[in-house]
Amino acid sequence: MKFAMLICGDDREWATLSPAAEEEVMKQVFAWFERWQPAGKVAEGGIELQPRDTAKTVRAGANGEPVITDGPYLELKEVVGSVIVLECDTIDEAVEVAATWPLAPGVSAVEVRPLLSRE
C-alpha cells in the first residue's frame, strides 16, 4: 500500500540556516534515503518544493471563474515543503518509517496519509 509522507514546517526557518548547517541536514536526509530505499519503503523519491513565496493559488471567484493569487491561500506558519511516497504494508509501518525523518530546523511535523487508489 502507498502512503504520502508530507514534510511540513516553516520554510522561512530553513532559509536562516548557514551553508554548513544546511549541508549537515542534507547529509541526514541522504542517510534517511540510503536506509529506506534499499529496504523498498520509498516508492517515489522526494519531491522538494520551492519556498512558499514562489507559490500561486487558484480558487473559485464569486462568479465561478478562477482567481489566481500569489503565495499560499491561507496565512500559515507551517506549509508542505516535500512529499515522499512510501510503500508499506500498514499505516503503522509507514509511521515507523516517517518517524525516522530528521526533524531539523524548518521541519515541525511529518504527516502520513494513505494514498487513494481508484483502480
Automatic annotation (TrEMBL):
It comes from the Bacteria. InterPro entries: Dimeric_a/b-barrel, YCII. Pfam families: YCII. Residues 1-114 form the YCII-related domain. SUPFAM superfamilies: Dimeric alpha+beta barrel (SSF54909). Belongs to the YciI family. This is YCII-related domain-containing protein. It comes from Amycolatopsis albispora. The lineage of its organism: Bacteria, Bacillati, Actinomycetota, Actinomycetes, Pseudonocardiales.
